[in-house]
TrEMBL record:
<feature type="domain" description="PB1-like">
    <location>
        <begin position="4"/>
        <end position="85"/>
    </location>
</feature>
<protein>
    <recommendedName>
        <fullName>PB1-like domain-containing protein</fullName>
    </recommendedName>
</protein>
<dbReference type="Pfam" id="PF26130">
    <property type="entry name" value="PB1-like"/>
</dbReference>
<dbReference type="InterPro" id="IPR058594">
    <property type="entry name" value="PB1-like_dom_pln"/>
</dbReference>
Length: 124
């Protein structure tokens, strides 16, 4: 049996617009697009999608990943491997699987300012 390969297309760095009854027009505004080529459908999993997020420079725990279901306007939030299994059943060889990243920063990392400029205070 030959491999069934797809392209994972990640939209990231922009703003996602999802309404409860689907969307009209473009679901993602701004940002960038990155494609992962020749992904085996049989190996598609939540873990693989998380690895893709890491490769793009995101912390998976601070992202919500949405998928555009093939041949549909429906959007699905990917929460588990069960979701990716349902999606994989809809994919065929050569399909492009669109994923949309919504990134949220949990707590900002604040660096305390130096009390006196120009002095490091180390070793004094």
């Amino acid at each position: 049996m030959p491999f069934e390969l797809i392209t994972l297309r990640f939209y990231h760095g922009g703003v996602i617009k999802i309404e409860k009854k689907g969307y009209k027009g473009k679901p993602y505004h701004g940002g960038r697009v990155y494609e992962f080529l020749d992904v085996d459908i049989d190996k598609l999993s939540c873990f693989e999608l998380r690895d893709c997020l890491k490769e793009l420079g995101y912390e998976p725990g601070q992202c919500v990943l949405y998928a555009n279901l093939p041949r549909s306007t429906a959007m699905l939030e990917i929460k588990s491997d069960y979701d990716t299994t349902l999606i994989a059943e809809c994919l065929c060889h050569g399909d492009i699987f669109d994923c949309f990243v919504r990134y949220s920063v949990a707590d900002p990392v604040l660096v305390p300012p130096l009390l006196e400029y120009g002095e490091s205070g180390v070793g004094e």
